[in-house]
Amino acid sequence: MIRALVVDDEPANRYFFRLCFEPMNVEVTEVDDGAKALELLERVKELPDVIFMDYRMPGMNGVDATKRILTKYPSAAIVFV
């Protein structure tokens, strides 16, 4: 199964990703800011196959979160949305 992490502060955007990908058997996990994405990645055993990252979010924005994620997990696949 493919695993995707959606990092977006807008619930409607996260819902859109879930609607698009779950019918294709993609496991979608959602968080609403960059700091929560980092916390989640610390807890999981394997990186998601792809991370969909919002550019602008309150708290830790997507650019800062991406820099931190790639520093720790250089093989992470991140797509800005």
Using the CA coordinates, give the radius of gyration: 12 Å
- DSSP strand count: 4
Mean pLDDT across residues: 96
The major β-sheet equals: 4 strands, parallel
Itemize the secondary structure elements and their pairings:
Layout: E1 2-7, H1 11-21, E2 26-31, H2 34-43, E3 50-53, H3 62-72, E4 78-80
Parallel strand pairs: 1-2, 1-3, 3-4
Helix pairs in contact: 2-3
Summary?
This protein has three helices and four strands, in the order E-H-E-H-E-H-E. It has helices at residues 11-21, 34-43, 62-72, and strands at residues 2-7, 26-31, 50-53, 78-80.
Explained architecture:
The chain has 81 residues and is an alpha/beta fold. The chain has a four-stranded parallel sheet with strand order 2-1-3-4. β1, α1 and β2 form a beta-alpha-beta unit. α2 runs parallel beside α3. The longest helix has 11 residues. The relative contact order is 0.24.
Observed structural traits:
4-stranded parallel beta sheet, single chain, 81 residues, alpha/beta, 40% helix
